[in-house]
Design goal:
Layout (H helix, E strand, L loop, with lengths): L8 H12 L5 H10 L1 H10 L9 H13 L2 H10 L2 E4 L21 E4 L4 H5 L2 E5 L6 H16 L3 E4 L5 H11 L4 E5 L12 H10 L1 E4 L9 H14 L2 E4 L7 H11 L3 E4 L10 H8 L3 E2 L3 H8 L21 H8 L9 H8 L3 H14 L2 E4 L2 E4 L1 H8 L6
Parallel strand pairs: 3-4, 3-7, 4-5, 5-6, 7-8, 8-9
Antiparallel strand pairs: 1-2, 2-6, 10-11
Helix pairs in contact: 1-4, 1-5, 2-3, 7-8, 10-11, 14-15, 14-16, 15-16
Length: 386
């Protein structure tokens, strides 16, 4: 949420609760739904009677956390780090996360310029083993690059192995990628990926449920995976052993009704055993970008050959309108040309182009971008976005 002046009570309450409740706490989520954020915070702050479902021991622990929480300080630290807090109901909130019910995030800390809601509209998760093979890294990077080239946003967890290969593949193709972390987004983890995650924040988005400075734990990694699954149209598992955390993402995707896909590996590879188990169930076998797009693009408005409805220009943010106006009426323009014409940075121009792509204004052609046919027609009809 963009805050001007003093943050409101609802925002401060949700920020406080990110310090008190663990991600995915469906009991806490039920409290917020049934009693409202303000009442839950009031009881925690004033040491009121325990809320339904909380044992005495647990309630005492929550009260201690609430007493130590400083939401105003967290918001200030986030602002200094270029991070914003997005709550359910905000314009930037991705509505598909509501499918998680009471396990829905209380809010998300977001680092990066693009709109999370816009980027999530056309996104695919690519996940897999941390200790992946060369084959796994190659497949993840190739799939991610191909998806990015076709206008899809690649979402992963920022970890070593398949996650990192997927992010690098998307970035290398000049595409869009989102890293979902299990810690504060101002402190990249793993530390060996500090440079990669900083690059993602510059060209894409880094998001997470934990407040600034918070650390990851094994349970937080597992719970983070439900956000990856809910945020995206489908999840591709590249390599995964029987007990891999990426299988948690895939199973969450299945429960949520998202497409679940697996890339087969050698029959003798333990790192592909978990994927093969998925493929024996309801997951679809995919071997290239065309297979993935055929599945996730099957959802009506996301079919590969569709050109989306053009929305009125007045609904766009000023920065997006400026980039849209920089595209030529005919032909293809490179991102650097568009950025120059829009008088903005190239990374910002690319971020806005992906937002415009999700809305049906523009499409990607190789290394360049052009207006969609509907956008050009609407301009001629006087209804247009530019």
């Amino acid at each position: 949420m963009s805050v001007v002046g003093e943050p409101d009570e609802e925002l401060l309450g949700r920020v406080l609760l990110t310090r008190v409740l663990e991600p995915g706490d469906d009991v806490g989520g039920r409290w917020v739904r049934e009693f409202g954020t303000r009442e839950v915070v009031r009881r925690l702050r004033e040491g009121g009677p325990a809320l339904p479902g909380a044992s005495g021991k647990r309630w005492a622990g929550l009260l201690a956390r609430a007493e130590a929480a400083r939401p105003g300080r967290d918001l200030a630290a986030a602002r200094d780090a270029g991070v914003r807090f997005v709550s359910p109901g905000d314009a930037e909130w991705p509505g598909q996360l509501d499918d998680l019910g009471d396990a829905r995030p209380l809010g998300l800390w977001v680092r990066g310029r693009p709109s999370l809601r816009m980027w999530a509209l056309k996104s695919v998760a690519v996940v897999g083993a941390r200790a992946c093979t060369e084959y796994g890294a190659h497949m993840a990077a190739t799939l991610a690059a191909g998806l990015a080239e076709q206008g899809w946003v690649v979402v992963s967890g920022g970890a070593y192995g398949v996650d990192g290969a997927a992010h690098r593949g998307a970035l290398g193709a000049g595409g869009a990628t989102v890293a979902v972390l299990a810690c504060g987004v101002d402190r990249p983890y793993p530390r060996g990926h500090t440079q990669l995650i900083s690059r993602i924040a510059e060209q894409g988005l880094v998001i997470g449920e934990l407040p600034p400075g918070d650390h990851p734990t094994p349970s937080r990694f597992i719970l983070r995976n439900r956000v990856i699954a809910a945020l995206t149209r489908g999840t591709v598992v590249v390599e995964a052993a029987h007990r891999s955390g990426s299988l948690v993402t895939a199973r969450a995707a299945q429960r949520l009704g998202r497409h679940t896909m697996g890339v087969p590996g050698p029959a003798t590879s333990g790192l592909s055993a978990g994927v093969h188990d998925l493929l024996r169930g309801e997951a679809a076998l995919v071997t290239d970008v065309a297979d993935v797009v055929e599945l996730v693009g099957d959802i009506g408005e996301l079919a590969p050959d569709r050109r989306g409805p053009v929305l009125p220009r007045d609904l766009l943010e000023p920065a997006a309108r400026q980039v849209l106006a920089a595209l030529p009426g005919r032909g293809v323009a490179r991102p650097d040309e568009i950025a120059r014409s829009a008088q903005t940075a190239q990374d910002d121009a690319i971020a806005r182009l992906y937002e415009l792509r999700a809305l049906g204004y523009v499409e990607r052609h190789g290394d360049g971008w052009k207006l969609t046919r509907q956008a050009v027609m609407s301009v001629r009809d006087g209804r247009g976005p530019c």
